[in-house]
Amino acid sequence: MSRYTTVKVWQLTPEQIANYKPGMDLGEPDRIERVKIVTEFEPVRRKGKGRGIHIKGRMTFRDYEMQRNRGLNDVQIADLYGIKLDTLQFYKYTW
Question: What does each C-alpha distance from 30 to 5, 50, 62, 79, 88 come to in angstroms?
Answer without folding.
Answer: 17, 51, 53, 45, 51
